[in-house]
Design brief:
Number of helices: 6
Radius of gyration: 19 Å
Helix content: 55-70%
Largest sheet: none
Number of strands: 0
Number of domains: 2
Structural class: mainly alpha
Strand content: under 5%
Amino acid sequence: MKVADKPIENKNKKPALRQLISFFVVGIAFGVIMVQAEVISWFRIFEMFHFHAFHMYGVIGTAIVLGIFIHWLIRKGIIRNVRGERIVVPPKAPTYKRYLFGGILFGLGWAMTGACPGPMFIGLGAGFLHFALMIGAAVLGTMAYGFLRDKLPH
């Protein structure tokens, strides 16, 4: 029997407390690593957008390679959700418009605020309260997208 065929035994289909605690600990460790790596530093992001330093490109490149590997593991069925069920990745229609427009909007927001979504939460957790304003704006932007989704090109 392959690893992908072995379900996690959990009778009530809810994550066990031990799993939730482990996710919490991993999240805190990830946040500490991101702060220590200066990923939430506005100065590091400024350097990146002005092509003055390789620091952020190295972090982003590592994340891309790791993401490709994890996505491959998910498609192979090696990584499953917390209930032990296979994660299904639906196919998407090949189009470049949504990636182009989405990338431009994401990049503009990142350049204006000096933060992308993940580090915003890490910055707030590190005690930088101005990140709360950015998170609020991101939530409002997401809600606006939800209302306008049917009218936008996809």
